[in-house]
Amino acid sequence: MDTSEVEELLSPTKEFLLTYFLPEKCYNYFFVNLNFLHVPCWKIVLSKTVGVWIILGTVMAQLPQLWKVLRARSASGISWWSVLLQVYAITGPVVYCITNNFPLEAWSERLFMFMQGLAMGFLIQHYSGNTLKGIVFLLVYGGVMLLLTSPLVPEHVIPAMQASSMLAVVASRVIQAGTNYYHGNTGQLSALSVFLVFTGSLALIFTSLQETGDWSSVSTVTHVVAACLSCLLLTQIHSCVSIGSYMGIGLLNLFNFVINKTFEYIVVQQGRSTNRMPFESL
């Protein structure tokens, strides 16, 4: 196989890498010159990888949660106010992109997140027996979106919503953690969704540090707090699963103990009745 055939085989891989992970200069360093110790290129690769993970994580994060709720036909344990704050947090960026006529491919992942949040809000109401309330929620929020994208809204409103979006995310996770503590369990809260959100927060911390280089910046601190709260939610889920497992094992052992003792009692009673003399029944 000559060089041209090898290049033809590697062409799709090269295009994929150049599109998402590294510039052509770094590709040449790594795969042409075989210089895998070029630190600046590794920084670029890491930064682009984190960027891709942020997009995938944000887009995919709510899908396991939606699937779990739909499969269980229950949204127990998931806070309505927490979901509402999540929807609010993504509303500002979506409205900003719409009002500035950004191309859809530039903000499609945010739109997808927004739709997932609305779907979760509806499902919470639907499985709580308030389907009409869920429909009203969708209609009202649709009206709010029309209002926010209209010229009637002052220009400073959308930037203010964007500025408060991370605070809304933090408040959302605080409320969900409080709900878990109050009920003593995490209900239908998806561990996979929370894990994806947690790793997304870690990626945002990395990008924030790359941009500001300052741990004390508001953006970095907010992402750190959000990551800590996501870690708290993961801990709560793990604790509830562990407690449930221990309770299940304990109940199983208790059941086996009762069955064994009952069986022993029956055997003993049968032995006594067999060994009893005929006149003892008189």
TrEMBL record:
Statement: the UniProt record of this protein carries the keyword Transmembrane helix = yes
Query: Gene Ontology cellular component?
Result: membrane
Biological process (GO) annotations held by this record are: oligosaccharide biosynthetic process
Which keywords does UniProt give here?
Answer: Membrane, Repeat, Transmembrane, Transmembrane helix, Transport
> What topology in the membrane does the UniProt record assign?
Multi-pass membrane protein
Q: Which InterPro entries match?
A: MannP-dilichol_defect-1, PQ-loop_rpt
| Domain of life of the organism encoding this protein | Eukaryota
Localization:
Membrane
Q: Which SMART domains match?
A: CTNS
Which regions span the lipid bilayer? 79-99, 111-128, 134-153, 189-206, 218-237, 243-263
Similarity comment:
Belongs to the MPDU1 (TC 2.A.43.3) family.
Protein name from the UniProt record:
Solute carrier family 66 member 3
Q: Which organism is it from?
A: Oncorhynchus mykiss
The organism's taxonomy opens as: Eukaryota, Metazoa, Chordata, Craniata, Vertebrata
